[in-house]
Amino acid sequence: MNLQKSIEFYKEAIQYLPAGVNSPVRAFYQVGGNPIYFIKGNGCYLEDVDGNMYIDFCNSWGPLIHGHRHPEVIFAIQEQIQKTLTLGTPHPFEVELAKMIIHKVSKDVPGIEMIRFVNSGTEAVMSAIRLARGHTNRNKIVKFEGCYHGHFDSLLVKAGSGLATFGHPSSAGIPEALAKETVVLPLDDELLVEKTFKKFGDDIAGVIIEPVPANNGLLLQRKEYLEFLRKITTQYGSLLIFDEIISGFRISFSGASGYYNIQPDLITYGKIIGGGMPVGAFAGKREILSKISPLGPVYQAGTLSGNPIAMAAGIAQLRLLTDEVYQDLEEKGKYLEENIIKIFHKKSLNWKIIRIASIFWIYMDEEKPPRRGDQIRKESMNLYARFFHHSLSKGIYLAPSGYEVGFLSVPMGKKEIDHFLEAVDSFHV
Ligand SMILES: *Cc1c(COP(=O)(O)O)cnc(C)c1O
Description:
seven-stranded mixed β-sheet, globular
């Protein structure tokens, strides 16, 4: 595979951009090798600067459920750019997208009554945390190891030594004093959550979790565990925040909340919601969202929030998400899962494919599927790095890190999935 131009771009990039990138995983540090410079996406295919074609299982990290450049999304954007790029005023599309989401999601998750749009997932989480604190007049946030919530200070925090203690910054540049307001717990452990609430319950503003943790492998949780979090937060008057930036509109239209039939107080959205444009949002009960400025005392604003082009793309993409689409993706997922297992068996490997709807994660390990971040064995990541490059050479683009999940998209057919299966089959350990 000729990567000459990618190599040249990267050489130039590292002079001007830290590590040559604008988001760390893109630099390929976790798999080694030269990052690839892509220029075009079409359906489920990607084209790089050297003219190589790849089947895209990364999907821009999740937003592209309909693949690249779905004609209706492109049409909506083209129509809109004839009128304006940004107005900084209210716009009918904000109302339309809000209405569509609230109507459809609240059928399954009745507490979702109002929404505010922002420009990224991180911004959505940051605002939801501030809102939780402002609404409850409390300071502490509980989060879980193995969940990612963007790069907001309060959540770039890791567990301290000893369980159920205050967190420490997991990035330089975050004050210890702020990290202390975050309690970091392992997933899948009711007892530690109980202990934490017994100790700090009257100062816990909210518990934030990815109900389908998909940023550190795919750590599917027990439904009873999620229900337990619902119960204990209610009991102590804390808010339950579901970070559905990946799972929202992906697991089902109403996300993991609908799938597990659990009503969080706040949901954060990103990725799919913008149809490929930079959009995030947080949604929840009217009573809570009414605390946001200018209705209430919790300040939150954005020059480009609710941008008409981004809203147009979001409306077009979400409108395409019918029950049939989810059914079709489920069937493709099932096909992938069953056939990968067959290949693993044939090779006498007890490796795992973990899957929910169109999200999958290949765990190259003989151990049982992990439910906690610390159960993932590092050895599997070295194998993944080799598998990544093997797949790449076969024209398959996976996320350049073994901790990242893969996504199926609507335009993917049996042909593309079979091509991926062949790559799994021809991979020698
Ligand atoms: C991607 C992601 C974020 C951050 O969103 P950005 O748009 O990258 O800021 C937050 N939470 C989860 C669960 C995510 O997957």
